[in-house]
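Comment thread on ticket #2218

A.B. wrote:
> Attaching the input chain for the structure job we discussed in standup.
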Amino acid sequence: MAIMQAQTALTNAEAGLSGATTDAAMLAAYRAIQTAADNLVTALSTHGGSAADIATAARKSGNAKAMADDLAEKIADAEMKANMAMVATAAKLYAGIGATPLTGHAVTVDATSGVWSVDPADVAPANLALQALTADEDTTVPDNHGWEGSRHTASGDAVTGTYEAVIYSHPDDPTVTEGAAFNVAYTLTDGETGDVTSLTGHAPSRVASPSFDQSAGTKTFERGNNLRLSFSGSYQGVAGTYYCTPADANTNCSATVADMGFTLAGGTWTFKPTNPAMKLMDTSADDTEYASYGWWLHKSEDGDTYTASAFAVYRGTAPTVTIDTLRGSATYTGGAAGKYALRSSTGGTNDAGHFTADVTLEATFAAVHSITGTVDNFT
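C.D. wrote:
> Ran it. Output below, let me know if you need it in another format.
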């Protein structure tokens, strides 16, 4: 019975190796095989097992030990290299954050386009130009207490070094409002509008059709033998049919992805509502006035010099009240975000990265301003 139990344990340990997908998991599996094989050797030796079976079990133990020892050395080397890399990163980021808050290191956002830029004044090499950033659509940044998270970067031949910014913004959600009946808001001839691109208040956000199904760029529609093309869809929330008459024999009608909708071109586009008395629905444009905060990091071209800064910025018309004129108190409960670096030259912790945290603050505005509260639950 003891031999059978030991053999079963070894079989199970060997089966566990097939499910190991990481070096750490494989190390644990080989150690388990080594232990199970050693136990089988003991059971066979104690209860009259054959010399051949004992030798087989011992060989499995030796093989497992050799594999485990090699993996352990590999893991140790990788950890040592990772620790050395973290020491270097922590040192560079520690210097990049600096002992005092940076000045002239801001993130800005264009009031119209919403494009984010880093203003890297004094970043080595000195006096770099304002650097526009590109949204990183492949990286998800979780919201922070209801503030939308996003990552933006800049790199390449035209960029000195590399830039990264994590931004938390709080724009208002678009709203949908009901308007007048379609045939009241628009003049219809034979049930159709004139060229929709010329209608009062026309915006790409009012255009929708299953035929316009691309997520970017332009989709063209060849005229073929049809002098007039038709597409089911909706305009300003009202269902109906689009018609496009190409501008000439060499031009195709087209729909191009635009802000919250599509730009129509290539001919004269009209729209015929299925129910002319249907009420119009309008979605408000993107919010252009909201606050944002976050951090950004610049790395020099050789990767040796880091500069990091926190920031807060307001898109749109910033409040004009200055802090010196405020009286009373105000509270903030929400999130914080930033970069951190822990650097030790005496064998202590070296670590670096970015964080989010919970914040509760109360500011008292008086002759001497003060602020109290907590920042905790760091992640």
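A.B. wrote:
> Thanks. Noting for the ticket: The longest strand covers residues 328-342.
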